[in-house]
Design brief:
heterodimer; A: 213 residues; alpha/beta; five-stranded parallel sheet; 9 helices; B: 248 residues; two-stranded antiparallel ribbon
Chain lengths: 213, 248
């Protein structure tokens, strides 16, 4: 892992903890930036890199769990909670809302590093996923209205003949649209197109089976 | 006239503050102590690992390891400071021990707990015999003991349907004043262990309340113990000497 391809955020009101964790992460070759409060973290201009957030539950301005809820509205890095006195309800709530781990101070080096690395890996995946989604949406936006009609019929598994009849167009015209859809969506096969459509949450409206659709 | 009013307001505010501090349960106090100690401990653990890594790097980064080691020393000292502050808190009190009627402190404790007791549908029964002499003690500390024992009694009756009563009884027995706080709750399973620090039967507890109570009572040259009630519950008893020995 090189210094430029990730970042670990630390939010804790105790300077000793910020210092110690930054140092520890650095000794593991990880780049860290520390903030003293929830507000400071939220307002900060943060680098756009795969990240992991080490978040203290007991912050002076906001409870860490509330901050988790607040930032959950946007894209945020996976959270590793740390707390001075962990109780079961808080840890359950944190994990339910997607936290990577919930560590009680003092925690071991191994536990922290495992959680931080898991967080970074998770964020890399999430970012790749978001980038792919953005690309897919962009491709989808290039489809003509007619092509958008054709797409759900094709992925429903309808034969060309059936799809053409559904839209009241000729089979040849349908084939032209279908090729264009495949091309614009950069899908190599029908299976690929189905997978892409699923990601874009395009509903399968028709069933090929007799008696339905 | 206005100055008088301001003074009165101030007095009321400071009374309220004192009340709030006294009513703060020892459980909360313990939790905050744990937090105070845990912070430097967490920093020490992280710094030690970092220090180890700097030293085992190829080549060893001695300069960084040195900075980290210095932080370990600093944080360990601050953890030790917390511990000695707590010790000081319970060893000697800031307030001089003056002779007071225990009855008035008991009344105050009952008043402090009255709302909570009503909320939890528990009756507080106070019975102070008339021949109890004034004794010298630290008002705030004994208040803490009373509040903590009363609250423990209430906690013990959380799942009790029958008589939900915490009884507070004070009488003189020879050269000590004996205070009993009894409940009809689930009783005590290990009467010998409950005074040990960090021993707790409560899900949220730190196990410090009774340990601190005992150290307060003992610093007054008294004793604190627990007895089983028949058929239900427990009675905590503490004694305070009528003529306290000179503080050592």
């Amino acid at each position: 892992m090189t210094a430029g391809d990730h970042i670990v955020f630390i939010v804790d009101d105790d300077e000793r903890i910020r210092e110690a964790l930054s140092d520890l992460l650095e000794s593991h070759g990880l780049r860290a930036v520390a903030y003293g409060s929830g507000g400071e973290y939220v307002r900060a201009d943060k680098p756009d890199l795969p990240a992991s957030l080490i978040l203290d539950v007991d912050l002076p301005d906001i409870n860490g769990l509330d901050l988790q809820k607040q930032i959950a509205k946007g894209d945020y890095p996976p959270i590793v909670f740390i707390t001075g006195h962990g109780d079961i309800p808080s840890s359950v709530q944190a994990i339910k809302h997607g936290a990577v781990d919930f560590l009680t101070k003092p925690f071991s080096d191994d536990d922290l590093m495992r959680a931080v690395h898991a967080g970074l890996a998770q964020d890399r995946l999430a970012r790749a996923e978001r980038a792919e989604m953005a690309a897919l949406r962009k491709r989808y936006s290039t489809l003509t209205p007619r092509e958008r009609d054709v797409l759900p019929l094709v992925i429903s598994g309808l034969l060309n003949k059936q799809a053409a009849a559904e839209l009241g167009i000729s089979e040849v015209t349908l084939q032209v649209h279908r090729r264009s859809v495949m091309q614009k969506m950069a899908s190599a096969s029908l299976a690929d197109l189905v997978r892409i459509a699923e990601k874009l949450q395009i509903p399968v409206t028709h069933s090929r089976r007799a008696g339905e659709g | 006239m206005r100055a008088q009013q301001a003074e009165e307001d101030l007095r009321q505010a400071s009374d309220k503050l004192a009340e709030a501090t006294q009513a703060a349960s020892l459980a909360e106090l313990s939790a905050s102590i744990a937090h105070e100690v845990n912070q430097p401990l967490a920093a020490i653990v992280a710094n030690s690992h970092a220090c180890q890594r700097w030293l085992s790097a190829e080549p060893p980064n001695v300069a960084r390891a040195k900075i980290t080691a210095e932080r370990i020393t600093r944080d360990a000292k601050s953890a030790a400071d917390v511990v000695s502050r707590i010790r000081a808190l319970f060893k000697q009190s800031a307030e001089p021990r003056i002779s007071v009627a225990l009855a008035s402190v008991i009344t105050e404790a009952r008043d402090l707990m009255a709302d909570e007791a009503a909320r939890r549908r528990i009756r507080l029964d106070v019975d102070v015999e008339s021949d109890v002499p004034p004794i010298a003690f630290d008002r705030v500390q004994i208040q803490q003991v009373l509040v903590n024992l009363i609250r423990n009694g209430m906690d013990a009756m959380d799942s009790t349907a029958r008589d939900r009563v915490v009884g507070i009884r004070v009488r003189r027995v020879e050269d000590v004043v004996r205070t009993e706080i009894s409940d009809c709750g689930r009783g005590i399973e290990f009467p010998d262990r409950i005074f040990e620090p960090f021993y707790t039967t409560k899900e949220q507890g730190m196990g410090m309340g009774l340990a601190i109570c005992r150290s307060i009572v003992e610093s007054h040259h008294g004793r604190l113990w627990v007895e089983r009630n028949e058929p239900h519950g427990a009675t905590f008893v503490f004694t305070l000497p009528v003529e306290p020995k000179a503080a050592s």
